[in-house]
Structures are given as C-alpha cells and as structure tokens.
C-alpha cells in the first residue's frame, strides 16, 4: 500500500524542517549511545543480551572493543562488571572467592551505572579520565574456577555447585 504524497512530504527531512530536526536529534543520540559503550557484545541492539559475552570472547575482542570505544568510562563500569553471575555459575563462584572489597567496588560501579542510566547522564569528564574499564579483576579467579571444574569433571567427581530451581 502506497503512502499518500502529503505523508511522504511530512516525513521527508529534505522537505520538512521538523522532520530534519528530529532526524538530527535521533542520529546524534544514537552516535552518543554507541560511543559511550552501551552497545551489546556483538553490535546488536541493546537488549536483554547486553554485556553477556563469554570470557573467551572478551579475551579475543577486548582489544578491538577498546580501540573502537575509546571513551567507554562514561558510566564507570569495567568490562567484567557486565558478566551475569546468574547466567554462569563459574562467574558466581569466582565472585564468591574474590575479596569483599573488590565485590563491593563492583556492586558500587553497577549501582552508579544504573543511576546514571536512569538519569540519562554520564560521569563528569574528570571522573571519566580516572576510569579503568579494561583493568581485569575477575579473569585470574575465573580461570582458576574453570580449571578446577574441568579437573573435577576429568576425575569423574560431582560438581561443587549445580544449578537448582528455587
């Protein structure tokens, strides 16, 4: 079904000043959205899959991500803060083994990022300069947990933790 010509003229940014302003605003917001690192792991639209890359993917694509998103400290999160402990029990176990100060700092970064997101704001530039989004705090412990799990499976022992339905 063809659109009426008056509707096409109304929505055409070359013919309507308001449509042109709307297009500029939306494109600027989308550019800011991608620049500040809010995209999902594979370049998909931000959705429920945001930040749920496997640790192997982080090792493979972390430097590419760092090169493409230079100002990713806008929310103050680190790359490993996006791992979901409810999705992967190895991550949950690694977080349980970390010192309390590191886990508290992670929770504080997540709360700050959610607060900034709800306010549609970013960290001030001076605080963004202090952020270290690619410093790892979970990689070593996660590798140890995966190694222990693989060793237990090789020996035929039961896993230390299993997924249960509450």
From TrEMBL:
Query: What biological-process GO terms show up in the record?
Result: mitochondrial electron transport, ubiquinol to cytochrome c
Please classify the protein's predominant subcellular localization into one broad category. mitochondrion
* Annotated membrane topology: Peripheral membrane protein
Q: Which InterPro entries match?
A: QCR7 (IPR003197), QCR7_sf (IPR036544)
| One of the record's GO cellular component terms | respiratory chain complex III
Keyword annotations: Electron transport, Membrane, Mitochondrion, Mitochondrion inner membrane, Respiratory chain, Transport
Q: What segment(s) does the record annotate as region Disordered? A: 33-79
Annotated localization: Mitochondrion inner membrane
Q: Name one Pfam family in it.
A: UCR_14kD
Q: Which family does it belong to?
A: Belongs to the UQCRB/QCR7 family.
PANTHER family registered for this protein in UniProt:
CYTOCHROME B-C1 COMPLEX SUBUNIT 7, UBIQUINOL-CYTOCHROME C REDUCTASE COMPLEX 14 KD PROTEIN
Q: What is this protein called?
A: Complex III subunit VII
Taxon lineage: Eukaryota, Viridiplantae, Streptophyta, Embryophyta, Tracheophyta
Q: Which gene encodes it?
A: QCR7-2_1
């Amino acid at each position: 079904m063809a659109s009426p010509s008056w509707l096409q003229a109304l929505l055409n940014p070359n013919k309507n000043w308001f449509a042109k302003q709307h297009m500029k605003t939306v494109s600027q917001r989308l550019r800011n959205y991608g620049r500040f690192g809010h995209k999902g792991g594979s370049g998909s639209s931000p959705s429920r899959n945001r930040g749920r890359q496997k640790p192997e993917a982080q090792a493979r694509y972390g430097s590419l991500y760092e090169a493409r998103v230079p100002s990713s400290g806008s929310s103050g999160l680190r790359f490993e803060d996006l791992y979901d402990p409810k999705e992967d029990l190895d991550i949950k176990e690694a977080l349980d083994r970390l010192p309390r100060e590191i886990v508290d700092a992670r929770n504080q970064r997540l709360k700050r990022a959610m607060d900034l997101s709800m306010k549609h704001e970013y960290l001030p530039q001076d605080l963004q300069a202090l952020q270290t989004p690619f410093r790892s705090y979970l990689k070593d412990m996660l590798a140890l947990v995966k190694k222990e799990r693989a060793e237990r499976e090789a020996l035929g022992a039961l896993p230390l933790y299993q997924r249960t339905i509450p």
